[in-house]
Every structure is written in C-alpha cells, then in structure tokens.
Amino acid sequence: MTLLTGWGRTAPTAAHLARPRSREEVAELVRRASDRGVAARGLGRSYGDAAQNAGGLVLDCTALTSWSLDETTGLVTAAAGLSLHDLMKALVPRGWFVPVTPGTRHVTVGGAVATDVHGKNHHADSSFGAHLTSLTLVTAEGDSRTLTPADDLFWATVGGMGLTGVITEAVFRCVPIETSRMRVDVERTRDLDHTLETMTATDDRYRYTVAWIDLLASGGRMGRSVLTRGDHAGRDELPRGADPLAFAPGSTLKAPPWAPNGLLNPLTVRAFNEAWYRRARPATGLVQGIAPFFHPLDFVEGWNRVYGSNGFVQYQFVVPFGEETTLRRIVSRLSAEGVVSFLTVLKRFGQATPGMLSFPIPGWTLALDIPAGRRGLAGLLREFDGWVAEAGGRIYLAKDSRMSARDAAVMYPRLQEWRKVRDEADPAGVFRSDLARRLAL
Ligand SMILES: Cc1cc2nc3c(=O)[nH]c(=O)nc-3n(C[C@H](O)[C@H](O)[C@H](O)COP(=O)(O)OP(=O)(O)OC[C@H]3O[C@@H](n4cnc5c(N)ncnc54)[C@H](O)[C@@H]3O)c2cc1C
C-alpha cells in the first residue's frame, strides 16, 4: 500500500499502486481489480483527491510515454503518461507547441484530457479537449476503444476525471511556432474594476492573457493586478544569431524538504505581493522564454512543501459573464478577512468544449492557494460555494478537495447526463476515486 495525496498535500489515503508499461498491462490490471475499484493517476498535479483511491488500485500511467508527430499537419499521437514537459522538449525545437498548457508543464497527457485543462489562451482557443481528434480508452471490461468527438463517451471522458476508463492514448492538433520566445506586454491595474475593464476591452488582442491579483491590497487598491499578456514571437523579433527554437527548461531551485506551518502568513505574503506589484514595471514587447511566461512555478521543484505539513487548499471557481458582482463579493470578502493567498490568478474563459463535466464556461475564473490550517477557512469557502452555485458558476474538480456532493450536483448541471453515459460504459462502477466517492459522482 502506498500513501498518496494531491499537490495540496491534504487528505492522504493508501492504495495499491501499479505502474503498467503497456495498454495490455492496463487492461489486465483493470480486469483483475478488486471491488474497491481502479483510479488512473498521472503526475499527481491535481490538488485534491482526484487521483487517489483509498483501499483500491491506483494505476500510475507515467510509464506510457511513446509519441509521434506528423510534421505536415501538426497532429501529435501521445501515450497518456507522457508529460507536457517531455512533449514540449521534443516539439518546440521542431517548431510546434501544445495547443493548451496549464500553469505547470509537469502534467501528463492523460491528466490533461481527464480534467480538460485550460491555459492562458482559453478566451482564444478553449480547453484541451477542443484540440483532440481521438482518444483510446481501456474500458471497465478491459477492452480498448477508440473514441472520436462524435461519441458521447468521448465527451464524458474529456473532463470526466478518469471515471469512464483509463485513457491510454490521445491524438491532438498542435500549433506551429517560429520561435521558442513570447512577445509580452505587462500592465498594472489600480483595482478590481480597472482589472476587469482592461481585460474585457483588450484581452482579445492577445492569444495568452492572465492577471495576478494582490488579494491583500484593500480599500481603494482592492483587486489591483499585474496583467501579463502575450503571443508567440516571430523570428524577426529575436536578436541576430539567437537560436530561434532553443528550448531547455528545467528547475533551478529546490524547495527545502521541510518548512514550518505558518511560513506563508499575512506579513510575508503582503511583503511578497508588494514587491511583485512594484517589480512588474509596465512594458510592451518584452521578449521572454516559454518557461518563464507559462510556467514560472516550475523553476522551484517541490514548491508545494513551502506550505508546511498542513498543506494548502486551492480554490478555483468560475462565474459566468454578467455575474461580476459575485466575483467582487468574493474578492472583497477575502481582502477584508486578510486571507493569505500567495498566488491569486484571474482569467477570462471563452467558448466551452462539449465536455459534460468540463470546468470552463464563458466567464471569469479566479484561483487562489490558501494554507490549509487557517481558522474558519472551511466555513468561509462553504459560503463562497453557495454564492458561486447561485451565480450559475462552479468549482474546478481538479483543484477541489472539500466541496460537498450537493453543491457539485448544482454546479454541474450535466451530471445526470454524464452518469448515464458512464453507467453504460462502466455498469459495475470499476472506476472510482476518493473524489468520486466524496462527491457521489
Ligand atoms: C502549479 C500548477 C498549476 C496548474 N495550472 C493549471 C491551469 O492553469 N489550468 C488547469 O486546467 N489546470 C491547472 N493545474 C491542474 C492540473 O493541470 C490538472 O490537475 C491535471 O489533471 C494534472 O495532471 P496529472 O497528470 O498530474 O494528473 P493527476 O493529478 O494525476 O490526475 C488528475 C485526474 O486525471 C485522471 N487521470 C490521470 N491520468 C489518467 C489516464 N491516463 N486516464 C484516465 N484518467 C486519468 C485522474 O484519475 C484524476 O482524476 C495546475 C496544477 C498545478 C500543480
């Protein structure tokens, strides 16, 4: 038995862990599963209990790493355990980029499909599922099925949190790039209204955009932000002699193996936020590498340990456009309560995929990291859940570790439809996870 947690390091549970090396081994393990069922796991970057299965079997898919690229069409066929980190190292020097990347490269293709990940380009390009042309799934009977967007099971699997089967392969379209650099504009906003106005008016000029919000700023500065927006740079924007497609990302720092609880407190985070806000000098046309633009956190290996042994809660919700009052209400409450969130990120979502349990809907999404030991946190977030649900919004299942089954059913109105498709594919309920049990999925 192995003790597993998500990236937030809360709620550990023990499971039998197996690391299949082929689709056949996946099928064999699924066929032999006990009545505690099977959950697939990638690199464990979901924050809560999605890739855990207490007392059952967890299939670590990271040994499934084959891939190929059709250089004329940009279609990639990748095994589910391949990380976006390894894929980018192969693709970028060949002039291609993944269609969507989350804020870390250390996720697997299977994890990206199962949570239908979004990136800074959701307003322009939607989420990962929109770029898939087919999937291979090992089903509850241990059969291998190839699914396309014409199949209901495809859209139950995209964003389906691994509960329809084990994804073993995905085919998706990549984006041609001339260089491995980004052309970036940086702007600071005065307060939340200024942030929302600026993003609404000018986000569409960029393929990638994100706002970092200083949650500890209060009064007239509440919601002040640093906007970082950009596009892939062209060859003519690089200095002469630069290798246009050079890409060698890595982590340069290692977080200490242990950190005291409470290291991130209002004092340290306020000082960090102030420095970050001031350091972000407004600029246009900065040329920056892919890694610092998309994955700044990946420079510090194991940064999640900085939260101490209590771990942390990531709270990410989306509310539809027109429900900005709910967003303001939550930001002002967090600011008034002095809730410490080291990294608070706001994005605008565009068109959703047909994924039945996919998180993104057109609207505003806010993500915050809060140390788990904070007194009163559970009650505060429960209150926010109610406001988000009332506004027609939802919490991201890949980040969640605490929501109730009742709220999940309200937030995900296609849950019944998804259950019907899932039940047809897996009538005995072979695929399970701690998250699925907690939310009665
Ligand atoms: C620093 C950081 C930044 C992030 N930024 C973003 C972001 O910007 N946007 C975003 O959308 N997400 C973001 N995430 C969340 C992350 O992208 C997702 O949780 C992703 O699913 C993690 O991939 P993984 O391989 O680690 O999957 P895991 O965490 O191991 O698993 C996640 C889910 O996928 C399922 N799964 C995994 N592999 C398979 C498979 N082969 N077959 C079937 N199901 C499978 C699991 O059962 C589980 O339900 C971020 C996470 C971190 C740590």
UniProtKB/TrEMBL annotation:
<dbReference type="GO" id="GO:0016020">
    <property type="term" value="C:membrane"/>
</dbReference>
<dbReference type="GO" id="GO:0003885">
    <property type="term" value="F:D-arabinono-1,4-lactone oxidase activity"/>
</dbReference>
<dbReference type="InterPro" id="IPR016167">
    <property type="entry name" value="FAD-bd_PCMH_sub1"/>
</dbReference>
<dbReference type="Pfam" id="PF04030">
    <property type="entry name" value="ALO"/>
</dbReference>
<dbReference type="InterPro" id="IPR007173">
    <property type="entry name" value="ALO_C"/>
</dbReference>
<protein>
    <submittedName>
        <fullName>Oxidoreductase</fullName>
    </submittedName>
</protein>
<dbReference type="GO" id="GO:0071949">
    <property type="term" value="F:FAD binding"/>
</dbReference>
<dbReference type="InterPro" id="IPR016166">
    <property type="entry name" value="FAD-bd_PCMH"/>
</dbReference>
<dbReference type="InterPro" id="IPR036318">
    <property type="entry name" value="FAD-bd_PCMH-like_sf"/>
</dbReference>
<dbReference type="InterPro" id="IPR010031">
    <property type="entry name" value="FAD_lactone_oxidase-like"/>
</dbReference>
<feature type="domain" description="FAD-binding PCMH-type">
    <location>
        <begin position="10"/>
        <end position="177"/>
    </location>
</feature>
<dbReference type="Pfam" id="PF01565">
    <property type="entry name" value="FAD_binding_4"/>
</dbReference>
<keyword id="KW-0560">Oxidoreductase</keyword>
<dbReference type="InterPro" id="IPR016171">
    <property type="entry name" value="Vanillyl_alc_oxidase_C-sub2"/>
</dbReference>
<dbReference type="InterPro" id="IPR006094">
    <property type="entry name" value="Oxid_FAD_bind_N"/>
</dbReference>
<dbReference type="InterPro" id="IPR016169">
    <property type="entry name" value="FAD-bd_PCMH_sub2"/>
</dbReference>
